Predict the structure.
Amino acid sequence: MTNHPRTSPDAAGALDALAAAPAAELTETLLEICSSPSWAAAVAASRPWADRDALLAANTAAMAALTVGDLADAMAGHARIGKPKSGDATSEREQAGIQGVDSALLDELHEANAAYEAKFGHVFLICATGRTADTMLASLRERFPHDAATEAEIVRGELRKINDIRINRLLDEA
């Protein structure tokens, strides 16, 4: 494998190991990144990956191909913004921006989430990594007026960003 400038030798080894993993093991790993079976199958089918960028491109292509039902599967793996899954290190890390915020702001976030869920029928999904509770609430309010089709495409983009972060973390932690 040729090392890409963004692929360290350790990450290249992780990428090779991921590409060589038995199908069931690879699927399990991919489903930890994104809970859509269609996404996991599409990414798995694109192996081997020449480098990190090829795996990230596979994520982008798989995300673009997801149906509305597949997007629902992908969103099902995500905690509500403002309520990370207790004991889930990934959820807690990704929503670190809500830790220690004042209860009034959390209440506003919960109310806005409830209105969003009532309108769209699913959790508000945003790449929360590096965002504060204030910025997530502002994004939620900004996106609330959208129609379902517009919001689905924004969700698709947010899921891709989340998957990119999770893929990079998987490779970097090797």
